[in-house]
Amino acid sequence: MTTPSPALGPMVTGAGVPVIAIDGLRKSFGPRTIIERLDLSVPAGESLALIGANGTGKSTLLRMIVRLAEADQGRLSVLGETVGDLRGSALKRFRARVGVVFQKHNLVARLSALSNVVHGVQARRSGPRSWAQSLAPAAVRDEAMACLEAVGLADKALQRADSLSGGQSQRVAIARMLMQRPELVLADEPDASLDPRAGREIMELLFRLTRDKGLTLVFVSHHMAHALRFSDRIVGLGGGTIALDRRAGHCTEAELAAFFEEPGGDTAPQEEPVRAPAPVFA
Ligand SMILES: Nc1ncnc2c1ncn2[C@@H]1O[C@H](COP(=O)(O)OP(=O)(O)OP(=O)(O)O)[C@@H](O)[C@H]1O
């Protein structure tokens, strides 16, 4: 019998309760309305690809989910919490439950891959240095090694981060995120700035790791092949709202390409979002 890796944390989601429930979300920056009205429900365990032209608000939406950006209107319920109500330590505890992977991995260049992953445990605890005080260093190190193994980089554990390739660095960032034992994973273009093979491998890894544990994954990608292959569902933003919502298995790359022919991104007038095409629901 194999013991489940401690690197892949617990799944805490009630059956039938959406991990993300968004109702009437609106967001402007100054006079520019980026998201006019957005409703979205993401069930537990779903892998959702968020697509759309540049400037349609994909990153802003991910940021609002963890309250790195404030919604102007609407309700965001994530992992059972009303995000807009969270303050102080409650907000910290909530953020500790959400693993985030960015296009830029932000590793500490002079530290080893392993040390970078060990630092991921800080995101798991709230309060100053509580992680260091409450966890045995050997246990933390073992878990960090398990996380590196999970991303296929155990042999690079002692290598400095600044000597790793872009793809390897992104794997370390994923291992660091796993160290947090997240219940929900958000990934903002994790496959950007990588060559086609490395980008595909990163997406494969994220998809497999989250799927194996039944975690919910929401990722942004401009690679339609990745959206189709590594998601259950593809949601397209355009015109300040959801302009496309399809099961990945019912969608083709040509249909997605056609979606991008519609207006909606940074090409839209600045004051008012362009009306989206009629939504296409599977
Ligand atoms: N803090 C901010 N202040 C002002 N404008 C912002 C801010 N953050 C984002 N924007 C603007 O909001 C719009 C949506 O940005 P966002 O990064 O969410 O788009 P995106 O869909 O992720 O784009 P891309 O595909 O290019 O990454 C853009 O026009 C951007 O310039």
From TrEMBL:
Write out the coiled-coil annotation as residue ranges.
none
Q: Where is the signal peptide?
A: none
Q: What is this protein called?
A: Phosphonate ABC transporter ATP-binding protein
Region listing for Disordered, in residue ranges: 262-282
State the Gene Ontology terms under molecular function: ATP binding
What Gene3D superfamilies does this protein's entry cite?
Answer: P-loop containing nucleotide triphosphate hydrolases
The superkingdom of the source organism is Bacteria
Q: Is this entry keyworded Transport? A: yes
Keyword field: ATP-binding, Cell membrane, Membrane, Nucleotide-binding, Translocase, Transport
The similarity comment for this entry is: Belongs to the ABC transporter superfamily.
* InterPro entries assigned: AAA+_ATPase, ABC_transporter-like_ATP-bd, ABC_transporter-like_CS, MetN_ABC_transporter-like, P-loop_NTPase
Q: Where is the ABC transporter domain positioned along the sequence?
A: 20-264
